[in-house]
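User: Predict the complex.
Assistant: Input components as received:
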Amino acid sequence: MSTPPQEDSHHVGLDSTTSSHPLVQQLKKIRQGDSGLLPILVGLAALVIYFQIRSSVFLSAGNITNLFVQATIFILLGMAEIWLLLIGEIDLSAGFNAGVGGAIAVILVDHQFHWPWFLALGLAMVVSTGIGIINGLLVILLRLPSFIVTLAGLLGLQGVLIYIVDRQGTGGVVSVQEKVLYNLVNGNLTPLWTWIVVVVLVVLSSIVMLRGDRKRRRSGLPGKPFFITVIKIVALAVAGLLLVLVFNTNRSSFTHLSGMPFAIPIDLFVLGVGGFILAKTKPGRYLYAIGGNIEAARRAGINVNRYRLMAFGLTGLTAGIAGLLYVSRLVGISDGIEGGTYVLYAVAAAVIGGTSLFGGRGKMIHAVIGGLVIATIDNGMALIGLSAATQLIATALVLLAAVTVDSVARRASSNAR
Amino acid sequence: MESTSEASNTQHSVTTDADAGASGVSPSNATPLLSLRGVTKQFGAVQALRGVDLDIPNGQVTALIGDNGAGKSTLIKTISGIWAPSEGHMFWKGEEVHVHSPRDAARLGIATVYQDLALCDNLDIVQNLYLGREETDHALLDEIKMELTTIQTLKDLSVSTVRSVRQLVGSLSGGQRQAVAVARAVMRDSQLVIMDEPTAALGVSQTAQVLELIRTLAARGIAVLVISHNLIDVFSVADRVAVMYLGNLVSSGPVANYDTASAVELITTGETSRAATSLTSAQ
């Protein structure tokens, strides 16, 4: 590979950094609908400030930790939805798919079966993946709309869940006694391990960013200005430090309780793997292509149906992981879980974070930010004593605001053509 | 089907032709790149192509003109492997070939740019150019390699209006999108690029850009087959003209043998007294 000297790229006018100041470009990008996470992060910060003013305990270590745990179900189900939203499909059954997976794990580890935890959790994830694949096969082979197929899945899986939970003869609730499943959400890393996990993550992602930048600069391609990378790394380090300080503060008045809940490394792991697949691998690239123009993808020689099926399977798998964390948090499974509501919150989380409902645009991190926004509203409104009615209306307004921003940005970018 | 060693030979011959084209020497027409002989296509009772004979030489722009329903689209779909001809023969560099699928056509080096361009608006230029055949490094996408090649390809095609190759294709103008679709064909080492109405939806300056691009392709030794309704475009860009009328290829030859009046007559009636005279005068 010959490396063209930098002057050449200037000559043909391909260098975007020469035209104007990076800040001006960033503003331009926001107007063109390529705003990144900035607006929603500002929104989240505004919510946090508002709730802290209204209630002084909002930013206490205990409440922040609780908020992250609350957000986990929205985050994981939101990431599950993103696989399909990217290709312009949806999975309404993901909430009950999570419920069924969780129920299988709960029943197998305890009750009469006493399976080893890894087998039970593994089987639960396999079943959830399988349910996702069945959805996908129905959509792809019979050419049915995913909305209807997974609506049927929502109803059917609720039936399945009620059936298997009620069969245990424990009054519609099965509780978790097994330690690993219990600890998925309720256990904590020790303060030392909290430090280690956060420091390793911050250092690793900094190295990845810096190496990527250096590789671009060495090959003579126009890159992002160095200071933007520095700002990102500093922001990451500060956020990591704050989280460690929050998690490592004692949050119990009776006994000592501190450290990062296990749920958070699990969220980060799914985020990392999902983000990696989408950004760095061919299958990820193909999901975006299918969502953008399925006919173009097909003509480019991509086996479109294979990757659509993969997306359905990944949605099932991610929903299964969400189910495990959900039953851990509830310390059991009941036949009355609201899988239908959860899945709608999950879609809302993805959309609030910036993922498009129309396919082709989205990232795993969107579900994390969106999930945190939803959990913040839930948590903060409960703290300042607002009714459930107000909470629902506020969530609705945030969702509307997010979709409006999305749609205005889309229009702006198509007008720019 | 062609073996790998033959494929690499093909590569070699293209480079020679490209050199010849660039230095202004007209490539020898001893063996046309693609020859059709007696190609017929029937859809049930409908005879869409009736014994079409057509030669497409290297490094030249052949314009395929004709009225709606004359069989232009059927002909290019046959060449690009969407469907097989009912009868007739197809020769690629003098050897008979059977193209049964777009994949077969692509393997020979035939790329078709359809009117809808088949681009993903949500992906950037690099991602679109490499869609379906991404470069990888240890199974991971090699973005830098792909970006460098993209810049080089656009530069080779003298596409200079694009601000950044990391721009989303959805934000490009019609002419730029056409350029991206053509660049994709070029990057796949195509030797014959078929373009369906490339200027149909474009304004004046955009059209000029696309015509310029077509000339650049031919100068690089690539054979171009352009379908167009716009005779002004045809006469400004084509080296050769082929006219279709009701499934027949009624006339073909160097562009100098035609003028607007004779072309219109051929398109509408399938014959012309003028073309006959100009043909003789050219010889």
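The mean pLDDT of chain B is 82.
Let me know if you want any component modeled separately.
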